[in-house]
Design brief:
- By secondary structure, the protein is mostly helical.
- 57% of the residues lie in helices and 5% in strands.
- Strands 2-3-1-4-5 form a five-stranded parallel sheet, with helices on both faces.
- The longest helix has 21 residues, at 387-407.
- It is globular, with a radius of gyration of 23 Å.
- 48% of the residues are buried.
Length: 502
């Protein structure tokens, strides 16, 4: 501020103010400050990179990629700018592009731990697991307290009796138990280690410890979830005609950890199909056109306003957002699980779209969600911080999908069960390809050879051939799942006869 008093035309001052403003999460104001700096001095890649990061924080992916591309064209050579560009491209789903910048950042500033963590995550997404582990280890050498790297190594490395990190993780946990996010990471890593060692009781015990501080902090209200499911069911009255005609999108939806990534890899192995990853573009487009003032992208107010939105404009905006940043011109898959909630609106806005909803055994779905470490800043998955709440969420989701199955056109909305895919991959692949209007191609059965990036929790598993070890996993945890199983049984989602322990 003192510098601007002396010289109101000093671009560096506006740049630094923009960074400070972005650090306080006021990204709209930060972008204004970055723009002022660029007006005074346009050829500054570091300013463009930081602007791109703020644009991405505001979910303006198209603008963010445009700003990042402009920064990259100026050949930046400082590590912070290189790493920032990697972050922007990663969040835009351009993982191959991000890798270049992360590698250059770590080479330029090899002693910054965060750059090595980001490089490790990008390497993991593109399937280079050995290199990812090495990047995470380098991060930990520089910063032994970086719980993200510690947890990441365990998540992608099979733990054995002879070689595991349990002692190291247990030694760390007391020092982070009061830090909700760090406790989540370390506790989840311990749970994964004990699961690898086939000790389910220990695994569930650590999950409860890991989640307790975060669960207390978020103060999750199950009524919020219930209201969204009810509002979503009400959108099935929308006319399933009109809208923006485009046969390109295939939406793969469902609760997380139910096989969505597996089916994405199967279908995107087809020569005519590309995986676009998990895109928030449909929800963002609906929020923008609905004009609702609520603080969430997905909420009752916005779902209720869907009927007043021009469906053709909604479908067109979604397609433009995807095409502008990802450059997709043919059939593509949007694999965001929560798009399931928007299913009737998607079919109204994109009448040629196809929606495939993954289902999985209720108890396995609850267990897999509870044992998953979701993004800590994404409130829609807060239900998974508590076992009984996860079961309650499943019941609401199940009722919504059953309603959709009864009311949405069968030629455009279908369900597929994870167990059926594992049991007969060829039959289910043929069915789903036919549903999407695609011919059968044998390489779809070799999905594990698909080299495209995977930025989900299944990034390691989907690079293996089809396996059955996840089927009926809940049986190994039945004693620890009693409260959740009681909820599922009371709602009619499972039968008492399935339970070995009354």
């Amino acid at each position: 501020m003192e510098a601007l008093k002396r010289d109101p035309g000093e671009p560096r001052a506006y740049y630094l103010l923009g960074i400070l403003t972005a650090d306080h999460a006021n990204h709209a104001k930060a972008i204004d400050l970055f723009d002022r700096a660029l007006t005074l001095s346009p050829q500054h890649p570091e300013v463009l990179a930081q602007k791109a990061r703020s644009e991405m924080a505001l979910l303006r992916r198209e603008s963010a990629v445009r700003s990042a591309d402009a920064a990259a064209a100026l050949a930046p050579d400082d590590a912070l700018t290189l790493d920032t560009l990697g972050v922007v491209y990663s969040r835009a789903g351009l993982h191959d592009r991000s890798l270049e910048f992360y590698k250059r950042a770590t080479a330029t500033a090899p002693d910054v731990s965060a750059y090595h963590y980001n490089l490790g995550a990008a390497l993991q997404f593109v399937g280079h697991m050995d290199e990812a582990r090495e990047a995470y280890r380098r991060c930990l050498i520089l910063d032994p307290g970086e719980t993200r790297a510690l947890a990441a190594i365990v998540q992608i490395t099979k733990q054995t009796e002879a070689d595991n990190q349990i002692a190291e993780l247990k030694a760390v946990f007391p020092s982070v138990a009061h830090k909700a996010d760090d406790a989540l990471r370390v506790g989840h890593a311990l749970a994964k280690a004990y699961e690898d060692l086939n000790q389910p009781a220990e695994a569930m015990g650590w999950l409860a410890k890991a989640k307790s501080a975060k669960w207390a902090a978020v103060q999750h209200d199950t009524a919020f979830d219930d209201a969204i499911f009810d509002a979503a069911k009400a959108t099935t009255h929308l006319p399933m005609m009109g809208g923006h005609t485009s046969a390109q999108p295939i939406f793969i939806v469902g609760m997380p950890r139910t096989g969505t990534t597996l089916v994405d890899r199967i279908l995107s192995s087809h020569s005519e199909v590309t995986s676009a990853g998990e895109l928030a573009d449909f929800g963002i487009s609906l929020k923008h056109l609905s004009g609702t003032r609520s603080k969430y992208v997905l909420d009752v107010e916005t779902l209720a306003a869907a009927g007043q939105v021009d469906q053709d404009e909604l479908g067109r905006m979604y397609m433009q957002r995807v095409e502008a940043t990802l450059g997709l011109t043919g059939r593509f898959i949007d694999k965001l699980p929560l798009n399931a909630i928007y299913a009737p609106i998607i079919l109204a806005a994109l009448p040629e779209a196809r929606i495939i909803c993954l289902r999985r055994h209720p108890a396995d779905t609850v267990l897999s969600n509870y044992r998953q470490l979701f993004a800590t800043q994404f409130p829609y998955y807060d239900y998974a911080l508590n076992l009984e709440t996860t079961a309650h969420y499943y019941v609401g989701f199940d009722r919504m999908i059953r309603h959709y199955s009864e009311t949405l056109p069968a030629g455009r909305f279908t369900q597929v069960h994870y167990e059926d895919v594992v049991g007969d991959i060829e039959a289910q692949t043929r069915r789903l390809l036919e549903f999407c209007g695609l011919s059968f191609e044998a390489q779809c059965l070799e999905f594990h050879q698909n080299a495209a990036p995977v930025a989900t929790a299944s990034s390691a598993q989907v690079r293996e051939p089809l396996y059955t070890r996840a089927l009926a996993r809940w049986k190994r945890y039945e004693a620890q799942l009693t409260p959740a199983l009681d909820t599922l049984e009371a709602a009619g989602c499972i039968d008492a006869a399935e339970r070995d322990i009354p």
